Amino acid sequence: xxxxxxxxxxxxxxxxxxxxxxxxxxxxxxxxxTAEAGExxxxxxxxxxxxxxxxxxxxxxxxxxxxxxxxxxxAACPNLDMEKEAARPLRENLYAMQQIFALRARRLELQPYxxxxxxxxxxxxxxxxLALNYYITNVLAVGVNGNYFEVFNSDSxxxxxxxxxxxxxxxxxxxxxxxxxxxxYVPAYGKFAGFGDFIFHYDAYxxxxxxxxxxxxxxxxxxxxxxxxFEPKICFNxxxxxxxFLNRWFAVDLEMxxxxxxxxxxxxxxxxxxxxxxxxxxxxKSTITxxxxxxxxxxxxxxxxxxxRLPK
Amino acid sequence: xxxxxxxxxxxxxxxxxxFLGISERAEAQEILLTGPLAxxxxxxQLRLYRQNRFEIAPVVSFTLLDEYQRTILFGARLTYNIxxxxxxxxxxxxxxxxxxxxxxxxxxDVNKDRRANAPNPPGYDETLSGRLLKVNMSTDFTKxxxxxxxxxAPQLTFTPFRGKIALFQSIYIDTDLYISLGPSFxxxxxxxxxxxxxxxxxxxxxxxxxxxxxxxxxxGLMLYVNKWSALGFEFxxxxxxxxxxxxxxxxxxxxxxxxxxxxxxxxQRWAWNTMFxxxxxxxxxxxxxxSE
Lengths: 312, 292
Description:
The complex is a heterodimer of chains A (312) and B (292).
Chain A: H1 2-15, H2 20-55, H3 64-72, H4 82-87, E1 108-117, E2 123-124, E3 127-135, E4 140-148, E5 154-155, H5 157-166, E6 172-194, E7 198-218, E8 231-245, E9 250-263, E10 287-302
Chain B: H1 4-20, E1 47-48, E2 53-63, E3 69-81, E4 86-100, H2 102-117, H3 128-132, E5 147-167, E6 171-191, E7 207-226, E8 229-237, E9 240-242, E10 251-252, E11 258-259, E12 269-271, E13 274-284, E14 289-290
Antiparallel strand pairs in B: 1-14, 2-3, 2-13, 3-4, 4-5, 5-6, 6-7, 7-8, 8-13, 9-12, 10-11
């Protein structure tokens, strides 16, 4: 047992010896070979190098390494006036390429947000939403997003004011949900120095896609007889967003997105002969509607960290 | 006999040496600003685009979220930048173009149809719509809409954020983000005030001009194209109360929130009056300074 413990201890101690020790033995052998070859080359070079030596005393700089080069191969000997070179003005600026603070490539972005309607003065459609985007490259992502509106639709005071002041009824709609497949492109990346003290990074992106939105008219013209159900419609969307990174995996987002879809509005006229006929409740043709929404949320990137792949 | 303590010591040494053989993987670390960078400024050799320079910028403004009428204003901004983060100046603009919204056009279309289809006799004024809308609707609704004629806003400009942006990973532009704050003097035109029994007798309601004094604030982004010019985008709010539709909406009933058949200050409704501005700034002198 005693011998086995000592043996283990010795083996462990041998394991931590630097491996360069073995390489040095090889290196010494290689150096020896090189020296022999160098001596032969130097013999040749002396004859060829004689004219170079005769040209000027300052042509061959002193120094161990350069002297060896000149002895071996006078043609490769640097022809420098060291005093003159030392007197040249130096460029002091050094440019270093800083790595991008937050890479997006091959990361999943989880983006919860809350949307606010910007351009509907009669009925607002705020609501929470969620987006999932996978970044194929650092600038291109594919993903999905969805919004929920149903319990958040609200009629504004402006609606009542117009109806009472002008006796004009404006057809209204309410939203239920929307979902879309999107592509995101990040053309801009930047950073700001705040108050000359801290630096934060941001990027700006363009997003667009196609999906569906479920809406229905709010009966205004004939609420006693008309009753509408939610119906999905095809919906395109396009938007611009700004993302401010608080660290390498968490960012605050502000986005403006336009949801474009064909809306079926309530008919402004009433068929007095048959008010309950559903075919008379809608306008004859659809109206292209732009629902512009401001979305404020956060971005969570997964995985939380990343590694740069640098060329070797 | 080897003592238990010796046995434990040898075992521990063996395990310890084994751990030394395991290579450590360097983990990515954040820049902690210690060592030689501690206390150093965030940016060196910063181009001071604003410091001790005059800024002259023509500006085009587009009002946002308008209910009845959009306005396009043309103006200019003059600023003297005392430091790279503080400037004092003035913004002024004239409301040159006023465009009714689709809602206003729709209201006027309905108004025209009612008047055209009214039985005569007795005429439109004796119909239900004519009596109910006498105070609110003239023969041309678009002629009674409120509009901004002139704005003058002395302001302080703070530039807390300086940076750069890379477009398509190849075009690099210096940028800064600024905030402007100050009072505002707004010359506007809205429907003239009238008392009970005197409103609605005219075919076209008379308008009057007044000045609204309020405050204004803006958030802007500057993109420096070269040493002496920059493209600017700005979001501005100009909050004040005014009667944008020329309607009688308040002044009577409970809490004076119901119509009173008169056009008074109660009918002026508060609004943010937001606008989006685009500007192109010229800096004098044309050469900027560079910080340490």
